[in-house]
Every structure is written in structure tokens, then in C-alpha cells.
Amino acid sequence: MMRTWQITTVTDAARARIALARLAAAYGVPTLERTRLSAGLSAHLRQCLTKGGTWRLTLNLAGSPAEEGLLHAVVTPSPEAACSGEPPWEVTVTCPEAAEAAEAGTVAEDPAALAEALLGADEDTAVVLDKLTEQEDLVAFHREELHQTNQGVLALHAELDAAGRAQREAFAAERSARNEAESARRRLTFLADASAVLTASLNHEEIVRRLPDLLVPEYASSVDVWLFEHDEERKRSTPHPAAAVLAARTGRPQYAADHPGNLPGVDDQPPSALDPGRPLLCIPLPTRRAPLGVLTLTPPGARWDPDDAVMLIELTRRASIAIDNARRFEHNRDIAETLQRALLTDLPSTPGLSLAARYLPATYGLNIGGDWYDAFRQRDGGLITVIGDVTGHGLHAAVMMSQLRTALRAYAVDGDSPGRLLTRLHRFLHHLQPDLYATAVIARFHPDEPSTLTWAAAGHPPPVLRLPDGTVRTLDAKPGAMLGIPLTQEIADHTEQLSPGSTLALYTDGLVERRAQGIDPGIERLAQALGRFRSQDLDADLESAADRLLDPLLSDSQRDDDVCLLLCHLQGDARS
Question: How many Cα atoms are found within 13 Å in the side-chain-facing hemisphere of 531?
Fold first, then answer.
């Protein structure tokens, strides 16, 4: 179906618009599409009328009435119009329904019909406006929904940002805690290692020398140790800061600087007049009685970390304990060494018999023990030589050794044999000190026969005998048990006939015993060393021979035990 309208006036345009609207409605074009079609046509016709001339509106419906078709509208100028070359305006809409074309597209020329048609157009417009209102409401709804979504997103972003900040703060706190734990571990490790170094020595001067090596440069740039007992030697050349003097008087650490130290347990003082530009930390060296001195330090940087200051105070306390223990040890050692050396008597002079003795205190650990030697004459002219070792170290062992020496001399007045003397010493020690033991070897040279040797041993390393021809053997006859053990024993005597030029070596276990090897290899080494001497050298200078014997035997020793050696040499003309 095709329809055509000639449009020259506004009324023609209105009738054409009404006809198009009615046809579109008749063919089921939706209201929105119909209104859009009518509005578009009205706008174009207005432009056409403005230009003038005659215009032609052609409507063409494609498709059968039983099928859905297309309504095609075209506006073109009339062939005779001046603007006939202008391109046509055209639009196509879908027509879902069929209708009677003649009745639907008829528009009466009555003005009332035109008004009615216009009112019908307004109804379409109202429907469109209703649709528009619905769309606006929908848009408003979606806008509100979008706003709420945006608010939710913003809230989520805020929560995520807060969670991120909290996580960063947690990471920072964890990192800070880890750094603090690592610093604490480092300080505790240093404190433990430094304490082990300080307590490893029993020489207080060595401990004082080690302190700067431990603290510089990590915890201090300089270290000064002021010991009160050395003050007389130093005060003429080294004045002490006022803070150090105050620390000595009060027993509290002092910090002297031009700024507060804010160190725990430390009092702040003005800067030192001796060196105002350097902060000083003066820590007393405490003991149970009174401070030993003051440790004065300067910081490695501008100032100390408070935790480092706490660690330095604790280290100073431990250093003070180590110094005090070392001084106590040195005091007891000096007393014991003085007592022990006073009890080591001069050897008697005997025709035809040379004696040489050596006593060497240990150089490692508690270097005074109960090792001793003695040689004296009995009333019948016999010569008693003895060497022994009291268990333990220190002043108590030295005192016990002196008591055994005195008791032995008292018992020997009666003229008893070595075995009998050791038996009496065993009973004496067990009665006097049940928890203390000793070992000893006694050798007696007879007055009428110096070549006859009677000896006895109680738990002691066996004597070593060098014969004139250089042969060496160990006198390993069955000895008695240690002196003082809770056992009743009678210690037997043993007799040897000596030839001129023979040499008897009595010694303590410090000469021959090594921790890694035991005692037997050491006795063998002693025998070999003694066998390398010539008899004429022993006749000529037994003292020198004693020194030459000790040197190779002690070359591998840590000297953690006393050493005693007593050589007894029968003079003779033998050559070997």
C-alpha cells in the first residue's frame, strides 16, 4: 500500500502528520516509536514550510496484512519545486499489526477533526511522558543505587586503606620487635662471651687489660679502669674525673656530659672539667664490701643507647666479681707459695752422695698444691729422702703438706724404716683429715752402707733408677695404697743394692702425667732422658743435670700441676 500527500501549508502538514500517526497506530506501531516518528516528521515539515514550495509525503507499507510489515515514510520536494534536488527525508518503522488503510489514513478537513487529532497526538505525548517519567524514576533509582554502590566502594576503600595502614603498622611493629629482639640477643651473647673471657683468668691485671679489648670500638671509644689499690701509683700522673670520684663515693653510676643521658639507673652530672667535650659514663666496680674501683667509658658515638648502658653496668658488675675473685686467689696463692717454699728445706751434704731437687709450681690454674720433697738425717746417720703429693690445691693442701712433713720428721727420730714411716703417716692422715689423701715415696740410704737403699711407696709413681752403665729401670715393686684412705694397711719395705755412679730419681706425677696419655708414657720418657746422661756429668754437676732433665720432659706440659724432682746420685768412677 502506498499513500501520498501534497504539503504546501501548515494545515497540509498537520493533516499529513495526523494521517501518519493514525496509520502507525492502525498498524500497531508502539506509542514511543509512533511519537518519535510523528515528532520527527513535524520537525522536518516545519523546515520544509520554512523553505517554501510544495512537498510530497509518501507512505509505503511493505508486506502483507497477515504478516508483520514495515511502514516507510519519505518526504521529498515536488518535481517542479525549486529545491527539488534536496535529498529526501525518510524513516522506517515496524508495523506489528494490520488495519484498513483507507479508514486509518483519512483525515477530514473539518477543524474539529484536526483538533481531535491534535488531542490524540497529545495522548501519545502523555504516554511518552509517562514512559519518560518511568525512565526518569528508573534512572533516579539506578542513580541512587549507584550512589549507594559508590558509597559502599568508598567505604570498602576506606576499610581497605585502614586495613592496609593497620597491616603496615603491624609489619613495622613486628620489624621493630624483631630488631629489638636481635639487639637484645646480640647484647646477651656479648655479655655471655665477655663474661667467659673475664672469668677465664685468675690474674686480676690480665682481666683489667682485657676490658678495653672487649668494649672498644663497639660499645666505647675509650676505657679507663681505676683500681683503688693502684691509686698511689697513678694519682700523680692521672687525675680522675669528678664523676668517677662521685661514683666511687656513692656506689652509683654517673653520666657526665653537657646534655642529660636519660640512662636507667644512672645519675646525670655536669660535663667533666678534664674533657668537657666528651660524655663520660663512670660505673663503680662493686663488691660485697666496698667498690674496687671505677670503670670510665666514652661513647662510640654521640651517646649510648639506654639498653647498651644497662648491659655495660651488668658487665662491669661481672668484671668486678672476676677481679675480686682473682685477687682473692692471688692472695691465697701467695700465702700458700710462701708457706710451701719455706717448708722446702735445704738439702743436707753427705759424703759420696749428691742430692739435687727442683720444685716448680703450676703455671695454669691454682698453681699451689701439696707437692713436697725433703731430705734429712736420722739419729743413726742414715739419710732419709722423701717426695710426696697431697691431693688438692691451695692453702689447705699446703698446710696439710707441712703437717705431714713435720710428722714424718718426728716419726723418723725413732729410726723407723721407710715402710714403717709411711704406715704411721697413713694412720696420722686418716685420723687428722679423713677426707684428704696423699701419696709418697721414702728412700733411706744406710749410714754404714750407702750403697744399700731401702725404699717404700704409698700410691706414688715408682722411683726410676739409673745404673752406672746407663741402664735404667723402674722400681715397681708392689706399693702400698694412698695415705689416708679408710683402709688398714702395713706398707712394706724394699731393698736395692746400688753401685757407685747410680742415680735414683724421685718425682711427682706433674712431671710425667699428661691428660691425653696417662702416666706410663711419661715414666718411660723420664727413664729414657735419665739414661742419656753420662755418669761423669752426673758426678760433676748434678744441679745442672736436674735442669737438663726437666727441660725436655716439660716441653709439652701445660703445667697445670706442681712438679717435684729429687735426684740422689752415688759418686763413683764409672764412665759410660
Answer: 13
Of the candidates 361, 516, 347, 378, the one whose C-alpha atom is nearest the C-alpha of residue 444 is 378
Q: Which residues have CB under 8 Å from 2's CB, separation 6+?
A: 58, 59, 60, 61
Beta strands in 348-427 (DSSP E): 353-360, 369-377, 383-393
Residue 280 three-state SS: strand
Cell readout for 290 is 666496698
- Using alpha carbons, select from 420, 513, 507 the residue that is nearest to residue 465: 507
Task: Supply the pLDDT for residue 229.
Answer: 76
Distance between CA atoms of 491 and 45, rounded to whole angstroms? 153
- Kindly report the number of other CB atoms within 10 A of residue 52's CB atom: 11
Q: CA of 529: how far to CAs of 540, 549, 571, in Å?
A: 18, 6, 20
Residue 531: name the closest of 545, 511, 510 by CA. 545
266-292 per-position pLDDT tens digit: 999 999 888 888 899 999 998 887 789
Q: Rounded to the nearest 10 degrees, how much is the dihedral formed by the CA atoms of 22, 23, 29, 30? A: 0
In the chain, the amino acid numbered 226 is: W
Cα separation of 286 and 318, whole Å?
9
**Cis? peptide before 479, omega within 30° of 0:** no
Beta carbons of 17 and 41 less than 8 angstroms apart = yes
| Residue found by looking up cell 570498602 in the block | 156
For residues 193-222, average pLDDT = 91
Residues 6+ apart with CB under 8 A from 431: none
Q: How far apart are CA 526 and CA 539, in angstroms?
A: 19
Sequence-distant (6+) residues with CB within 8 A of 194 are: 214, 315, 318
- Rounded distance between C-alpha atoms, residue 253 and residue 260, angstroms: 14
